[in-house]
Structures are given as C-alpha cells and as structure tokens.
Amino acid sequence: MLQKKKTEVYALGQNISMSAHKARRVIDQIRGRSYLTTLFLLKFMPYRACSRIFKLVWSAAANARHLLGSKNENLFISQAEVNEGSSLKRFKLQARGCSYPIKRPTCHITIVMKDRSLTNSEKKVKVFLDADNFLIDADDFVQKDFMNWVKNPITKPKNKYLTMEYHDMYSNGGAWDKK
C-alpha cells in the first residue's frame, strides 16, 4: 500500500484571551502568504493580536521543519481560521448593591502551513487569457513573454478619446425648463 506523503502541518492556540473579531482582522491579512512575509507583517502591524498569532506561525513553522524537514523559504500559510471560544463571566459591583456582568471572550486560532516543494505534483492547472484571447495553461502563460502582454493588455480601450458624462447630483435627470 502506498503511503501518501504528508505536506501540511498545523499549530493550534486555544482559549486565547481576545475576541475572535479582533483576531480575524489580522488573520485575514496573512492568509495565503509566505512564511517570511507573514513574520514581517506581524512584526510591524499595530494590533495586540499580532504577538499571539506571531507565536502560532512560529510554532507551525517549527513543526514543519521538524516533521517535514522543510525550509523556511518553501513554507506558506494555506489555511488560517479563528473560532470563538467560551467567555469568562465575571460580575463587577456597582452602587447601591447592584452588579453588572463582564464577559471576557476567548478564541481558538488554527494556522495550517504547507510546503511548496512537496506540493509540486498536486499543482492545480489555472487557465489564463493571453493577448490573443486564447485559453492557455498556467505553465504556457509564464513561459510567454509576459512584458509584451503587460504593455498590450486585453482591456485596452478601442478609441483614444473617451467621452465623459457629467451628472448633476441636484437634478433628477429630466429636462430643465425655465418658467
């Protein structure tokens, strides 16, 4: 029986004391990026969640180096998700014998990293449009002269002079008649 080679590792942080919304704001920025770019972004972003996520990304990379034997240059974040955890419920005393509840939210963060060098055999074929509007594979697209395609893009307008319509925001678009 053939054994499938493992290509991804993960790091899981549970019951981290911050709201899931604040952690998602950072996770959305790093999803799909390479490992070194992610570390650079997390180092200089001004959010409090960055330090916890930095530790998780570092841990996932250490897991990849240990389990897969991969290098830092080949790692990228394939999945990153934040789930809500349980809330710590406390009460704070108020005047005249009253109290009000304090809810301290927690979240669970999962970082999944893949190694690019191990996933070459599972590469998905993407289809692009070239300058002549023909469908081609991703490998053919990279091998063509890309700079010529950039200079003459498909979306180039047919006429040089574009007509602009001016819309007055105070009118309803109808004819204006003098009385």
From TrEMBL:
One of its GO terms (molecular function) is rRNA binding. GO terms for biological process: translation. Keywords: Chloroplast, Plastid, Ribonucleoprotein, Ribosomal protein, RNA-binding, rRNA-binding. It holds the Pfam family Ribosomal_L22. The keyword Ribonucleoprotein applies. It is found in: Plastid, Chloroplast. CDD domains: Ribosomal_L22 (cd00336). The globular domain of the protein is located near the polypeptide exit tunnel on the outside of the subunit, while an extended beta-hairpin is found that lines the wall of the exit tunnel in the center of the 70S ribosome. Part of the 50S ribosomal subunit. Belongs to the universal ribosomal protein uL22 family. This is 50S ribosomal protein L22, chloroplastic. It comes from Trachelium caeruleum (Blue throatwort). The gene is rpl22.
